[in-house]
């Protein structure tokens, strides 16, 4: 069982734009890095602070599940490393243990395609229905966009009500932040939606992509399940929500989006605390 604690130090912020760690299936490989399926278990950017998992909670590796970890680093400027005297020590520290924890963590990724019109504001949405069997408890979230991102946010639609999962500017330090609503619980057949608000002051259309000249609309939701529900972490149909930039679920049939509810269940006692 892997338990993450310390993240990259601030000295990396000038040259690194993004770091992610993935769980990979199959055998180790270099081309492609993950031959089998993979899941994102963490990502970091913009000189963000450290993150500590809640008590008795971990990401599982090994056994019948994912066999190895991959660290992926996106450099904003790697020219310094062309000097043979310069050493690249990018990375972060992980805390590992062999004793299983009571709760297991996963990351659900909202991501969209699409484009941003020139000289104006654009809203990009993605929504998916949760078809898994386990109840997911969101514990933290992270947003990611490039220079045109203003606010990324995500919501849960449950029994005719809308609940905020998280909202943050991608121009702030990018790590996982605890959700404010500790009563959140995602049940089978619930709908989740993420939205990215973008501003483009350039005279060109900006497309979603991986380079600095492109944009990205990402919302990462870290969730936990009971140890008995580990199969959820390997359910490839319920780890990611993708669209072409337009909401692929008719949200108007669920709830008036202007009405947010603070708590899902006043008697719910959250089993985790930061």
UniProtKB/TrEMBL annotation:
GO molecular function, one term: copper ion binding
Originating species: Paragonimus westermani
Cofactor note: Binds 2 Cu(2+) ions per subunit.
Keyword Transcription regulation tagged: no
Keywords: Copper, Disulfide bond, Glycoprotein, Metal-binding, Signal
EC number(s) stated in the UniProt entry for this protein: 1.14.17.3
Protein name as it appears in the record: peptidylglycine monooxygenase
Residues that coordinate or bind Cu(2+): 74, 144, 146, 216
Cysteine pairings via disulfide bonds: 196-217
UniProt-listed GO biological process terms: peptide metabolic process
């Amino acid at each position: 069982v892997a338990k993450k604690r310390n993240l990259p130090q601030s000295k990396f912020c000038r040259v690194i734009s993004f770091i992610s760690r993935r769980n990979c299936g199959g055998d180790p490989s270099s081309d492609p890095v993950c031959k089998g399926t993979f899941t994102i278990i963490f990502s970091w950017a913009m000189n963000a602070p450290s993150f500590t998992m809640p008590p008795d909670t971990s990401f599982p590796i090994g056994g019948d599940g994912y066999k190895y970890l991959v660290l992926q680093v996106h450099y904003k400027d790697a020219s310094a490393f062309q000097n043979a005297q310069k050493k690249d020590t990018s990375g972060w520290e992980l805390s590992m243990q062999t004793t299983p924890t009571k709760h297991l963590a996963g990351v659900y990724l909202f991501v969209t395609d699409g484009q941003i019109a020139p000289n104006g504001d654009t809203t990009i949405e993605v929504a998916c229905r949760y078809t898994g069997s386990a109840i997911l408890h969101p514990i933290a979230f992270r947003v990611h966009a490039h220079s045109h991102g203003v606010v990324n946010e995500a919501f849960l639609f449950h029994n005719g009500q809308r609940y905020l999962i998280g909202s943050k500017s991608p121009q702030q330090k990018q790590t996982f932040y605890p959700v404010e609503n500790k009563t959140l619980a995602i049940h089978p057949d619930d709908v989740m939606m993420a939205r990215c608000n973008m501003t483009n002051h350039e005279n060109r259309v900006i497309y979603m992509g991986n380079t600095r000249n492109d944009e990205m609309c990402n919302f990462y939701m870290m969730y936990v399940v009971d140890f008995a529900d580990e199969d959820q972490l390997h359910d490839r149909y319920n780890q990611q929500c993708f669209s072409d930039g337009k909401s692929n679920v008719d949200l108007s049939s669920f709830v008036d989006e202007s009405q947010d509810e603070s708590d899902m269940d006043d008697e719910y006692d959250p089993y985790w605390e930061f």
